[in-house]
Specification:
With 316 residues, this protein is of the alpha/beta class. The chain has two domains: 241 residues, Alpha-Beta Complex (Spore Coat Polysaccharide Biosynthesis Protein SpsA, Chain A); 64 residues. Helices cover 52% and strands 11% of the residues. It has eleven helices and seven strands. It has a seven-stranded mixed sheet, sandwiched between helices. α6 packs parallel to α9 and α10 runs antiparallel to α11. The longest helix is centred in the last third of the chain and has 29 residues.
Length: 316
C-alpha cells in the first residue's frame, strides 16, 4: 500500500519474452497487485510471467482473447483493477524501460487530490538533457508533432510528451470514463487524454527518467509517419470531445467558434488556390473576390484561435 491506498500495476505485454522478467523483478513493495495482460503474444512470454508469479504472489496473468493492441490491454487491466477495488492503477510497459523506482512520484498527486491521472514526461527538469541526447531525432520529431496535435485535440495545452505510457489513474477516473469506444492500438495515450478531458478530469505531468536499452526493441514511434497515422484518430477524438464536453455534458459557445473556424479556414484556402489558378490561367482575379478570400481566411483563423483560447481557459 501507499499512504493507505491500494495500488495495482498494469503491464500490457506483447512479444516481451526477453524483457518482462527484469520488469517484474524490480516491482517495488508499495505495489499490492501486478496485472500482466497478455495481448495474444505468439512467443513464450506467458511461461516467463507464470514462472515469476510462482515467486511473487502479487503477479496475476490476464489474457485477451483476441489481440487488441496495447490500449486494449491497458483497459483490460483497468477494469480488473477497478473490480478488485484498487484505489490507483499504475501502467508501465513490459520492456523494462520505465523506472519503477520513481512510481511514488506518480502516486503523490493522486493521493493528495491534485490530479485524477498522472503521466510521465521525459522533457521536464533534470531529465530533458539526457532525453534529448538519447532519443533518436526521428522519434523526437514525431513526439513534437504528436504533442502539438494532441494539445488541441485533448484540450490539455500545458502537457508535454503525450506519447509516454508511464501513467497512473484513480479508480474514480476509471469508473467515470466509458472505455468502450476508446482507441486500443498504438497511440492510445493520446486518446485517453481526450476522454479524460471530456469528463473534466485533472491530469498532471510528472518528470521521469528515460531508459534506453542498447540492442532492444524501442518505441513504435517512427517520426512523421507515425504522426500521420494517428492524426485521423486525433481529429475524430477532437470532434467527439467537443460534442461530449461542450454540448452533451455542458454547454459552451466555443464549440461554434471551432466549427466556424474549421469551415472558413479550409474554404478560404481552397478559394485562394482557385484564385491563384485563375490568375495563372490569365483569367484574372477581381478585387472583391480577393477581399472575400482574405476575409474567409482571417475570420476562420480568428474563430479558431478564440476557440483555442476559451478551450485553454476551460482546461484550467
Amino acid at each position: 500500500m501507499y499512504r493507505d491506498k491500494k495500488i495495482s500495476l498494469v503491464i500490457p505485454a506483447y512479444k516481451e519474452e526477453n524483457l518482462i522478467k527484469p520488469t517484474l523483478e524490480v516491482v517495488p513493495d508499495i505495489i499490492d497487485k501486478v496485472y500482466v495482460v497478455d495481448d495474444c503474444s505468439p512467443d513464450n512470454q506467458n511461461e516467463v510471467i507464470l514462472d515469476c508469479a510462482r515467486k511473487d504472489t502479487r503477479i496475476k496473468l490476464l489474457k485477451n482473447e483476441v489481440n487488441q493492441g496495447p490500449g486494449g490491454a491497458v483497459i483490460t487491466g483497468y477494469m480488473q483493477s477497478s473490480v478488485e477495488g484498487y484505489d490507483i492503477a499504475v501502467v508501465v510497459g513490459g520492456d523494462n524501460q520505465m523506472p519503477l523506482d520513481q512510481v511514488s512520484n506518480f502516486l503523490e498527486p493522486l493521493v493528495n487530490g491534485e490530479a485524477d491521472y498522472t503521466k510521465g514526461n521525459r522533457f521536464l527538469e533534470s531529465e530533458v538533457e539526457y532525453t534529448l541526447k538519447k532519443m533518436p531525432k526521428k522519434r523526437l520529431l514525431g513526439n513534437i508533432i504528436i504533442t502539438a496535435l494532441t494539445k488541441i485535440s485533448s484540450g490539455y495545452y500545458k502537457l508535454m510528451d503525450v506519447v509516454d505510457g508511464y501513467t497512473a489513474i484513480t479508480k474514480k477516473a476509471i469508473d467515470m470514463v466509458n472505455w468502450d469506444k476508446a482507441w486500443r492500438k498504438y497511440g492510445y495515450p493520446m486518446d485517453f487524454l481526450i476522454r479524460l478531458n471530456a469528463y473534466g478530469l485533472k491530469v498532471k505531468d510528472v518528470p521521469r527518467r528515460a531508459i534506453y536499452l542498447e540492442g532492444e526493441r524501442q518505441s513504435q514511434i517512427k517520426g512523421l509517419r507515425y504522426a500521420l497515422r494517428v492524426s485521423p484518430m486525433l481529429l475524430k477524438g477532437f470532434l467527439w470531445r467537443l460534442v461530449t464536453k461542450y454540448i452533451y455534458r455542458d454547454f459552451h459557445p466555443l464549440v461554434f467558434f471551432y466549427f466556424i473556424g474549421m469551415i472558413f479556414l479550409p474554404l478560404g484556402f481552397l478559394f485562394g488556390l482557385f484564385l491563384i489558378y485563375q490568375q495563372i490561367a490569365g483569367i484574372g482575379v477581381s478585387g472583391p473576390r480577393a477581399i472575400l478570400c482574405a476575409l474567409m481566411l482571417i475570420m476562420g483563423l480568428q474563430f479558431f484561435l478564440f476557440a483555442m483560447l476559451f478551450d485553454m481557459e476551460e482546461g484550467k
